[in-house]
Amino acid sequence: MSDVDEILSSLPIDKIAAQIGEDPEAVEDAAAAAVPALLGGLDANAGDPAGAASLLEAIGQHADKSIDPSDVDAADGEKAAAHIFGGNQEQVVNQLAGTGVSSTLVKKLLPILAPIVLSWLAKRVLGGKGGAAAPSADGGGLGGILGEVLKGAVQGGGGGRGSVPNAGSIISDVLGGLLGGGRR
To answer: How confident is the chain (184 residues) per 10-residue block, as mean pLDDT?
Structure first.
């Protein structure tokens, strides 16, 4: 099972759909596009030393967070998505809409999914440890683990019901072009 599939299978789609007032099938399709996009954005950020340090800090803040969407702080989620995509968030949403999902739905989902993805990544990078770690953003330590997790997640992208083929690669390419490989 790819990392994207792991995240997607852990999402309570019915709960998220009820929370935002959308059809569960549409939410599942949009999540299948948005999760690889978020991972691609995180990967692009991790490519820059300052972005990696910021990302590791965010991971530490989400280490003990629940994956329950009703516990997600929407304001925190909006900030997380804004940091992940920078000034290119609207372009990313439009790119995802090109895969056949609703841009309005993607905009509703990003603030819910960003903290969930960060929480998942924290568990992978920190191995279940609390957020008190002082990771380095260089190639070793947690910085190296972060890079490997994100690379595997983006390369394994496109899980779910298969409606969005390799969205992680698409978004990595888009973000690589928009952000020069990482948000600065």
So the answer is: 85 94 95 90 83 85 77 88 90 88 94 92 73 46 66 59 50 53 43
Residue 138 φ/ψ region, left for φ over 0, alpha for ψ in the -120 to 50 degree band, beta for the rest:
beta
| Residue labelled with tokens 């924290």 | 122
- Radius of gyration of the chain, Cα coordinates, nearest whole angstrom: 15
In this predicted model, what pLDDT tens digit does every residue of 142-176 receive, in sequence order?
567 766 776 766 666 544 444 444 555 555 555 55
Tokens of 121: 């990544």
Distances in whole angstroms, Cα of residue 57 to Cα of each of 64, 126, 135:
13, 12, 8
Q: Which residue has the tokens 């603030």?
A: 111
Torsion of CA 171, 174, 180, 184, to 10 degrees: -50
Query: Model's pTM, two decimal places?
Result: 0.79
Per-residue 3-state assignment (H helix, E strand, C coil) for the chain = CCHHHHHHHHCCHHHHHHHHCCCHHHHHHHHHHHHHHHHHHHHHHHCCHHHHHHHHHHHHHCCCCCCCHHHCCHHHHHHHHHHHHHHHHHHHHHHHHCCCCCHHHHHHHHHHHHHHHHHHHHHHHHCCCCCCCCCCCCCCHHHHHHHHHHHHHHHCCCCCCCCCCCHHHHHHHHHHHHHCCCCC
User: What integer pLDDT is reported at residue 159 of this predicted model?
Assistant: 46
